[in-house]
Amino acid sequence: MRKIPNGFTLVELMVTIAVAAILLTVGVPSLKSLYDAYRGSSEISRIQQALSFARNQAISYGAPVGVCPNSSGTSCGDSWQSGLLIYATTTANTASVSKVLKVVEGFNSSDRVVGDKVVFRPDGLTKSTEQVSFIYCPNGDSGDSRSVNISASGMIRYGDDNQSCGS
Question: pTM of the full predicted structure?
Fold first, then answer.
């Protein structure tokens, strides 16, 4: 009676590893691009939700509510990279934080976020007379960028994709 071998020969194992290496070399870059596109969509959705929250709170509180770059969780900073700070203010100076309503955690360190501070008035309109935009670029690349626009009337909607985040 002849014994049936259990397992693989060294040649079969080496061929299998070579084929797997070729497939990974071809497949991984496309998966990274897919991941970047998904991250861009996910993060711009998070920004859109935060802006909607701020507008709703301005209407509910009957006071101006601002969105600015988070510095320490209690004050505005300069970089959107560290997240968003949503705050209510009761003073004439709408840049001063009277009460922190929500802190949106920071974004991926390799990504770039471009936007302007925005303040919603108690009627839901913005203090700005022009459209305000937020652009999120995964890996700083405009190829997978996503955007959100806020009109002067306070309407928040998704904007055009593939916009430049600047240098």
Answer: 0.79
